[in-house]
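User: Sequence for LysR family transcriptional regulator below. Tokens please.
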Amino acid sequence: MQAMPQWSDLQHFLAIARGGNLSAAARQLKVDQTTVGRRLAVLERELGARLFDRTPSGLRPTAVALRILPAAEAVEAEALRVERLASGEDLRPSGPVTVTATDSFLVHNVLPWLAGFRERHPEIELHLLSGYETLSLVRREADVAIRLVRPQEPSLRARKVAAISIVPFASQAYLDRRGPVRFDAGLQGHAVVGYAQDSRRWPESKWLDVHAARATVAVRLTSILGLLQAAREGLGVTLLPAIFGHLYPELVPLRDVLPELERTVWLVFHEDLANNARVRAVVDFLAETIGTQAGALAKAPARPRRKRASGDAARRVGKARESR
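Assistant: Structure tokens for LysR family transcriptional regulator:
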């Protein structure tokens, strides 16, 4: 009689199928690569079939692997549901909670308020995972997510907490060097801080492609933190969340907020964790914290007025007109 595969071995199988190689699976499972290879060998021996072919581009699932993949995912879904239900009724606000968000949002919109949360909930250990990759709340890769797109999975609960407006900024030092910015001229004579790699697909990048078509590109980056620092250093014009104009006075808003680029901030968690005390405490803290910043997130500082000509300069302009 063939032995029933262990769930832990199926975990390794799924990680390899998703990652495409042993090293990616090891990173996902937080084990060493040798362990992943050994567990795969055990599973193949138990099933009496090869599950992956080695190719120059990585490990490719065999026909057998593709047939058992849906069943393995079903086992995973049930195992994760058991875990969520077991922790979902935890009535004490203590233990670890994993939150995922972009690096910029964590740095500017969460960390400055974290000391107050720690005073209220000293037994909760927050794990903050930053990045642009969307971690799965269904697979317990995170407990709470701060997202800019409402999730479609029916098992996830989403709570709208704020809106983020996007504004073109440049540093005052840059404007002093390069002069006024005219978007109707395609930013001719100016430089922009652009987007690189996957971020070229962002709406902000496409907006710059259209409205700054005649500008040169000073540098391209893949993160909001990088764009922010480049703008502060005076490298050029770029698009940034409105709140940065409030946090960094050296940044000058060049236009009002751009409605077509507005984003909504959602707090997302799995419905099975709705009654978990520590998850609920984190969600309430984030909702309160982000809510207090809603005004700064949605509205940029007032644009500086153009300086009027001095008395001497105005008189010179008047005399020039009279002499025409």
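The domain at 95-164+263-298 is CATH 3.40.190.10 (D-Maltodextrin-Binding Protein; domain 2).
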